[in-house]
Specification:
CATH class of one domain: Mainly Beta
CATH superfamily of one domain: PDZ domain
Distance between the termini: 30 Å
Strand content: 15-25%
Number of strands: 14
Largest sheet: 4 strands, antiparallel
Number of helices: 9
Length: 338
């Protein structure tokens, strides 16, 4: 990302893959790529990529201007290495050989933390369509495949089989377009977002109003994207792999209980204090963690780390149940620190 103008190439910097379709004047037609908690490529396919490429070419040839893109506003030109957090690394000779995309958000977040203006809501940047109750078809990302019962999308009248044509005044072809539009919607108060769908059999556009309640973009801990999650505090200071069913059985742990074995305690880098805190509380490598604050249904290590960061408060004490030897359980008290 070194030298890339962030005022022009604005996209979800935590993505694994981002494709921008751009008019020669710098306006963006469409975005392809998304992040889903299931996997980095769960919403991507060659069929959907080819489709948006062909459709965008049609827009360019027949319209000559990006539909809906004219309303985009940009700030002053800046590149990641010139953002304050990274500029200091450059000056100190500690700049990375390669600026990865996720380092853009890292730089913005570090600057906000230093200024005392950091808002944890940024963890929910670029919310996916599932946040409003929609699941779009992987190969045809205008097509609504699922509408969650009781969701904002259902309340707005979106139906399975509808094709999204515009969202918040912007022409959409992809999940990335929907996330772009959703990211522009505030969450401090109730919002009404106009959307249009093409509905069979006549294919006529139907205008709908999507009502989003305050705080709508915040999802469950397991939905938090990994690149964003690693930057958040507070941190437990330890982690390790989840145990398999066979491993749990061998240790006498019920199948329905999540468990993971600690294979690292953070004693290095900027957050070594968290590992020292965990060690002081009695946690050791090879301990098997059975529950944290009474929670024993973690689906992955990412889920555990996200849950800890989003739900634990600095100053509280968390009870952790561990298994150090088969059958011998022990409860430890872990103070939550910054």
């Amino acid at each position: 990302m070194r030298g890339v103008d962030l005022s022009v190439y604005r996209f979800d910097y935590d993505l694994t893959l981002a494709v921008l379709f751009m008019h020669p004047d710098g306006q963006i037609y469409h975005q392809y790529g998304n992040r889903m908690s299931a996997s980095a490529d769960s919403g991507l396919s060659m069929a959907s990529l080819e489709r948006v490429m062909r459709r965008t070419l049609d827009e360019h040839e027949f319209r000559g201007v990006p539909a809906g893109a004219a309303a985009e506003t940009r700030g002053p030109s800046v590149s990641v290495e010139k953002l304050p957090a990274m500029a200091r690394r450059e000056k100190a000779g500690k700049a990375p050989d390669c600026y990865h995309c996720h380092m853009v958000n890292q730089a913005f977040d570090e600057e906000a933390q230093e200024k005392g203006t950091f808002d944890p809501i940024v963890a929910w940047r670029w919310p996916p369509s599932t946040r409003i109750g929609l699941q779009l078809d992987r190969d045809d990302q205008q097509m609504v495949a699922v509408v969650a019962e009781g969701s904002p999308a259902a309340a707005a009248g979106v139906l399975v089989g509808d094709r999204l044509t515009s969202f918040g005044g912007r022409t959409v072809l992809t999940e990335g377009d929907v996330q772009w539009a959703l990211d522009a919607v505030g969450d401090a108060e109730e919002a009404i977002v106009p959307i249009s769908v093409s509905r069979d059999p006549k294919g006529l556009d139907v205008a709908l109003r999507l009502k989003l309640a305050r705080g709508w973009r915040v999802g469950a801990p397991e939905d938090l994207w990994r690149a964003t999650m690693w930057r958040l505090d507070p941190r437990p200071g330890f982690g390790g792999p989840m145990l398999s069913t066979a491993q749990k059985k061998a240790l006498g742990i019920a199948e329905g209980v999540s468990a993971f074995r600690i294979n690292y305690v953070v004693t290095w880098g900027d957050h070594a204090r968290t590992g020292r805190n965990a060690h002081k509380a009695g946690l050791r490598k090879n301990d098997v963690v059975l529950s944290v604050a009474g929670k024993d249904d973690f689906t992955s290590m990412i889920h555990f780390h996200a849950w800890f960061r989003l739900t634990r408060k600095v100053g509280e004490t968390v009870k952790i149940v561990i298994l150090r030897k088969k059958g011998a359980r022990k409860t430890l008290d872990l103070p939550v620190i910054e």
